[in-house]
Every structure is written in C-alpha cells, then in structure tokens.
Design goal:
This protein is mainly alpha-helical. Helices cover 67% and strands 0% of the residues. The two termini are 39 Å apart.
Length: 119
C-alpha cells in the first residue's frame, strides 16, 4: 500500500508543495506586473534622464511623421523604435533596459506559445 510507505508520502508532499509554491509565485508576479505601474515608471524615468536621444527628440519643435520620410530613410513614429534603430549609439543604461524588456517579451512569447509556464 503506497499511503503507508513514508518515502512515497514525502515525494507526494514535495510535489504538492512545489506546485503550490510555483502557482503562488506566478500569481504574485502577474499581479505585480499588471497592477503596479512603478515597475514601468522607474525604467521610463531612467530612460528620460539617461538617454540623450530622447532628450534631443523632446527639444526638436517639428517631428517628421513616418509618411513624410524620404524613400530611402525610415523615420520612426515611436521613440522606442527610434532607440532600437540607434542601438549602438544608446547609453549603457538604455541598452540594459531595452535588452531586459525585449528578452522578457521574447522569452514569454516563445514559452507561452509552447504551453510552458511563463510569468
């Protein structure tokens, strides 16, 4: 009888506790990621303070739209896309922040599409 075997009881207890802790961790990170704007405000604050490309976009009085660009040149409408196009000229702080969010997005996309747990 397996309920009387102490080894199997401990394995079952370990498996159940690991599952409960994993579910609690996933739920907590989903709550924090979706309901706490501070997680996104702090990187945005760092980008505004540390990135000279964003400061130069703020001081330009006229921003060309994507439709007004010349044929061979692509002008991004989104400032984040502008940072990604100029990745090598960005500061180290900007590269770390963009790298973190891009990695998080890509890993989440790949793991979620393959039915693996991702939070």
């Amino acid at each position: 009888m397996w309920p009387l075997d102490p080894c199997r009881k401990e394995v079952l207890r370990f498996a159940v506790s690991c599952r409960v802790l994993t579910l609690m961790l996933q739920v907590l990170t989903r709550f924090l990621g979706s309901s706490t704007p501070i997680v996104y405000w702090f990187p945005a604050h760092l980008l505004q303070d540390q990135e000279p490309l964003l400061r130069s976009l703020e001081t330009v009085p006229w921003k060309p739209l994507a439709g007004d660009s010349p044929a061979g040149q692509k002008v991004p409408r989104n400032s984040i896309m502008g940072l990604l196009y100029n990745w090598k000229t960005c500061s180290l702080v900007t590269q770390c922040i963009l790298g973190y969010f891009l990695t998080y997005w890509l890993l989440g996309l790949l793991l979620h599409c393959n039915f693996l747990p991702w939070t």
